[in-house]
Structure formats: structure tokens, C-alpha cells
Amino acid sequence: MGVQVVWPSGAMALLTQLEADRISLKSQGELYDLYRNCSLAVLNSGNLTDNSKELLENYKNFEIDVVRNERGLKLELINPPDSAIVDGQVIKTLQKHLYSVLRDIVQVNSLRDSIAEMCANATPEGGNILDQGTIITNIIFHILRAANAVRADQKPSLAVCWGGHSIPQDEYAYAYQVGRNLGLRGIDICTGCGPGIMEAPMRGTLDGHALQDNAENSDRIGLTEPSIIAAEPPNPFVSNLVIMPDIEKRLEAFVRLGHVLIVFPGGPGTAEELLYILGIKLCHQNRHNPVPIILTGNENSRPYFEAINDFLIHCFGEDITRHYEIIINDAKAVAEKVA
């Protein structure tokens, strides 16, 4: 049985007794299974898989424990994946991601009771007490701020990229070029943190920032949530992992973070994301808050976007087209629109 010790950094190096007990293996706390599975997914970062059941079966002997001591806490990993270990040490990026899991799972749980109480007392919009939408938005901001994904001292320069996780090489290459051109212009990236379109722009933007001697300051945010992280472990290029409580809050976090949304070809999930942001843009209250939407892909994706465009016009009318722009096979033009 192999045991690896990881010392987390930052504020999460100190937990209260209650927080530690809730997540502890020894006490079989209420959060343990969720925390274990998310941690295992993180340790599987970079390995191509979309089968969460297979992942959990392959490492059913894996355990993780939060051990409190006089210095705060440490994480003990029991039988972690071999791919996460180099020369007897857990890869540093994965150590950071383990800290992110601890932060987000513990933090959300600590807020749960107060959130439930506030929502129970919430009134419809316009009442004297906060409505549920406002409460949820503030929760999302709290999580993103704790993850250092939003910073007051930084000009907004984050492009959110949506698209498929299982894509052909030519689509990957094009998305990489879009990311590279964004990185050359100092634009950071936020994706769903998995493979495919979630990886290619991140890889590209890292190279673009490196060419501008800015790789250390670039931000590559991966937004995920517990029900999908095992099927889509973080790709190797994620620099800041954030685990939202559920899919709905993850969607809102994308919109709150990005100053532009870039949509590549994808499946039903990508279509849902596109309809979500279009629904927000069509809301009358948002008419003075433009969020650019760019639909882009290589030449092979032209029929896909023509079909999407026809569908949207059929559903919402011709006026819907003013809310997005379609750019085919021109990565530089996409980056110039963003910058």
C-alpha cells in the first residue's frame, strides 16, 4: 500500500475541527465520498477517459484523508494513481488541484446551511428580502473570489470557450490556433477543463503567452462540477481549477467570468450553453450589457454553423443574428475581435 503526503497551501491549510471532521476518512464524514471521487478525478488529470465508472473501478482501493496536526493539516493519499507520482512526489500541479478540491468542497458545504435558510426566506424579485437568484449569484461570486478567479486589480481579459470534448484532430488544431492568437494578445482562457475543445485553446493560449514572455502570469481557468469531473478530468494545461456545486451554477459562472464567449462545434451540451447565453442576451434588462458571442470553427465546420444559424433564425427570428457573429477558418480574426 503506497501512501503519499501532500501539504496544501493558502487559507485551506487551516480547517476548523467541524470542517475537518466532515471531510475526514477516519470519521467517515458526510462529504467523504464526494471529496474522494473529485480528488481521484484530479489525480487522473491528463489521462483520456470519459468513463467515470471505469475510473472509480480501477482505483477502488484509493483513499484520501485530511489529517489535522499542530501545523494545520496534511492530505494523505492511499494508493493514488501511478501517473500522478514522479520520483516519489505528487506532481505539483496536481497538488494545487487537490487543494482546489478541498477548498471548494469544504467551502460550499460550510455555506450550505446558511444558503438554505436564506433561500427559504427569499421573496420574489422586488421584495425587501433578497430573491433566490440574487442569493445564488452571490454564492457564485464567493466561490470564484475564493479561487482567485476574479481579481479587482486585473482588467477583464478572459475568453470563455465552449465546444465538444471528443473532436477530430483538425478541429483541435484550429481551436489551438485560436488560443495561440488570444495568448499573443494577452487574453486568458476559461473552459470546462476537460479534453477536446476544453483543452486545445488552453494549450494554444499558454504557447501564445510564452512567446510574449508572459506564461507565468497567464490564467487558464477550468470550471467543473462534481457530477462530471470524473468523466472529464482536468486537462494538463489548467492552472486554476474551480469546482462549482452543480451544472446550473457552473453555467452562470462561465457568463460571470467571461468578457467574450467563443463557441466551437460541439454536441447537445454546447447547444444548451449557446441557448443559455442567448436567453440572457435576449432579456430586456441586459440590453446595455453586451457580451460578444463568436461562433467559430475550421472550414469543415461551416455546415454545422449554417445549421445552427438556420435553427436559431427559425426559432427566434432574423433579429437573433445580431447577438452573435460567425467566423469560419480565421483564428486571427477571432482573436482580433476579442482583443
Automatic annotation (TrEMBL):
InterPro entries in the record: LOG_fam, LOG_family_nucleotidases, PpnN, PpnN-like_sf, PpnN_N
Domain Pyrimidine/purine nucleotide 5'-monophosphate nucleosidase N-terminal: 6-109
GO CC annotation terms, alphabetical: cytosol
Top-level class of the enzyme under EC nomenclature: hydrolase
Protein name: AMP nucleosidase
EC numbers, comma separated: 3.2.2.4
A GO molecular-function descriptor: AMP nucleosidase activity
Reaction catalysis annotation: AMP + H2O = D-ribose 5-phosphate + adenine
